[in-house]
Amino acid sequence: MVTIYDLKPKFQACLRPAAAWLAQAGVSANAVTVAALALSVAQGAWLALEPGAALPLLLLPVTLFVRMALNAVDGLMAKEHDMASPQGAVLNELSDVIADAALYLPFALISGVNAPLVVLVVVTGIVAEMTGALGPLIKAPRRYDGPFGKSDRALGFGLLAVLLGLGLEPGPWTNVYLGILLALSAYTVLNRARRIVAEAKP
């Protein structure tokens, strides 16, 4: 199933010079990962401290794009500049789910937004990422299948942030919107689990 993740090779190609420059400057891939996490936590704290405020909501898509770029850069540095390590692999998986929680849970604090639905979408997204990471445990590839992976969640919450930031009042439409995101997240869990089991080596 096509997802935004399928655009990753072209996105990485644009960022390859930046990854090479950082590697030559002595910056580690793990440092880039930590920078992406710190940026996400800071943006999430801003959203939580000013729930529903226009500026942090409208700047969220920018933060999400920068985070995505940093995630792509750290991957390039690890693979193409001999910086891959067990510590980096663990840090990468943990930082992704921590950043998602930090960035998206503050939506539950916005007046009129269904908080339990927000929490369910975030938790199901975390389960999807952990499901994808189970592959190597049973000798299968790490799975990034959609329809609602990390990049798709960024688009979904980024769009929601823009709509709310532009003054659209939360209401029944936000429940429907979040319900769709939840359904897509749940299907992603099932899709990744099915692919992992099918590709597992005896």
UniProtKB/TrEMBL annotation:
GO terms for molecular function: phosphotransferase activity, for other substituted phosphate groups. InterPro entries: CDP-OH_P_trans, CDP-OH_PTrfase_TM_dom. The chain crosses the membrane at residues 21-47, 53-73, 174-190. Keywords: Membrane, Transmembrane, Transmembrane helix. One of its GO terms (cellular component) is membrane. It holds the Pfam family CDP-OH_P_transf. GO terms for biological process: phospholipid biosynthetic process. The keyword Transport does not apply. The keyword Transmembrane helix applies. This is CDP-alcohol phosphatidyltransferase. It comes from Methyloceanibacter marginalis.
